[in-house]
Amino acid sequence: MSALSERLPAYSLFAAIISAAGLPIYIYAPKYYADSYGVSLTALGAVLFGLRLLDVVQDPLLGWISERLRRGKALAVTCGAALLAISMIGLFAVAPPIPAVWWFGLTITGLFSAFSFLTINFYATGVAKAGREKSGHVRLAAWRETGALLGVCVAAIIPTLLIGLTDSPFAIFAFGFAALTAVAALFMWPEWRGHIESAPMGIRDILSDPIAKRLLILALVNATPLAVSSTLFLFFVESRLGASGWEGGLLVLFFLAAAASAPFWGNIANRLGARKALLIAMVLAILSFGYTLTLGPGENIQFAVVCVLSGATIGADLTLLPALFARRMGQVSPNGGQGFGLWSLVNKLTLAFAAVVLLPLLELAGFRAGSDNPASALTLLTVLYAGVPCALKLVAIALLVATKLEDS
Fold first, then answer.
1. How far is Cα 255 from Cα 236, in angstroms, rounded to an integer?
2. What is the distance between the alpha carbons of residues 366 and 354, in angstroms, rounded to a whole number?
């Protein structure tokens, strides 16, 4: 059966929309509100941390709801897509009608609540579509994760490309995102129906499975470096490297390297096993982050090389770990809703760490976005941007070495 007849391109497009509403928003939103409305980094970090506390309750609840949706799933998911689009417009295209920090909190809560609901249902439906066969998950993951990485690439570069061409680059991005979300929701509509669903499983049942639990812990530790570097990327490029205007090109290099590397890591995993492929990627990430610690003003080309190398390692993280978890959910929880509620929560907790710890630390050290900063603040920025991810990757390596994966 051809990929088109299996409607796998619809999965790529929907994955692109979800991914575009995730990581790129953490790259742009805090700096946008700090620069445009003068919201302090500490206040932004507090809002994002509060949202993560909400996720602790919300994401498992959304997983529970997902497992119990039947005929109404298509309509429920479409409503979630509408909330995603409206929240994006509110975040970037509407001048805050209330104090900016409260508007930021309101719109980003709507955005990431919709993001969670759509992610949970999307991956759970993928588990049912792929079935229990290993090749089914690999084929679906190839389409899905490639679409996700391309979505991140486009969302990361479009706002910076529009800067200088229009007075409202983020507003144009938000309306374009909303239009594409409507198209993606239309194409995915048939996929929310027709899959045979098993009896729902509780969170305790999923966490009692040792492999699923280890994969969740590994995902938590291994994804945190990406959350850290994403949260601080624009600040690092602008203030440490003094490379204003390079942000868009560097982001493109980073995410295109991630997208282009996904098939490579898939081949490595097929030959050596997922565990060895992930270990290779982690070591490469440590080397690239370690070199970043030595960079200073004007070393833009060197940092561009780092973006390519570190981006390539992300291709392994974003492709192999979700595929491994989806395969495991296909065996222990075919419905997948509760499992991917936990997966969504784990990945967003990494962003909470970056928001609640790193942004206030920078502000406490005297760092201010878009202005001259003391040498001590710039040194701290470098350590947080590159040193913290190195340490976390070392912990991830230790966890992975101690974990026996099924296909390692």
1. 17
2. 18
CA distance 161 to 138: 34
Q: Taking the CB of residue 62, how many other CB atoms lie within 10 A of it?
A: 25
Strands (E), 197-356: none
Question: pLDDT for 40-70, tens place per residue?
Answer: 888 888 888 788 778 777 877 887 787 777 6
For residue 269, pLDDT over 90 is answered with no
Residue pair 29/108 in contact by the 8 Å Cβ criterion: yes
Nearest to 248 by CA among 323, 182, 300: 300
Q: Tokens representing 279?
A: 């270990």
- Per the CB < 8 A criterion, the answer to whether 195 and 67 are in contact is no
User: Residue 2: what pLDDT?
Assistant: 42
Instruction: Tell me the one-letter amino acid at 333.
Output: S
Q: What are the pLDDT digits (tens) for 326-365?
A: 777 767 765 556 677 777 777 777 777 776 778 788 888 8
Helices (H), 236-273: 247-272
- Rounded to whole angstroms, what are the CA distances from 214 to 307, 315, 343? 29, 21, 12
Q: Terminus-to-terminus CA distance in the chain, angstroms? A: 30
